[in-house]
Design brief:
Blueprint (H helix, E strand, L loop, with lengths): L1 H8 L1 H20 L3 H28 L9 H14 L6 H7 L1
Length: 98
């Protein structure tokens, strides 16, 4: 009578182990193989790899502006000055204009 009592003590770990093993075995049996997945998605993998290579290549070969006197920084400053020059309308300023 000692063995069934000890088995009842470990009822939940045994059930969990059986459920996990059943899930993994069904996954192995019914899931497609890695090669099937690879053959289905190879255009996506290839295009992503080529895009990343192009980004790295252009990132290394393009000239990075070192200072803040570059045309790109000046264009950004112009937009920031434009936005900063027009404060948001508040309810008080809207009521005063009426």
């Amino acid at each position: 009578m000692e063995i069934p009592e000890k088995l009842l003590k470990f009822k939940y770990p045994i059930l969990l182990t059986l459920a996990v093993s059943l899930f993994l075995s069904s996954l192995i049996i019914f899931a497609p193989s890695f090669l099937n997945i690879l053959t289905y998605f190879w255009p996506l993998f290839l295009s992503t790899a080529l895009f990343l290579v192009a980004v790295i290549f252009f990132g290394k070969t393009s000239a990075h502006p070192g200072g803040s006197d570059s045309p790109a920084a000046k264009a950004g400053e112009g937009i920031l000055n434009y936005v900063a020059g027009h404060p948001e309308l508040t309810v008080d300023s809207y009521n005063k204009s009426e």
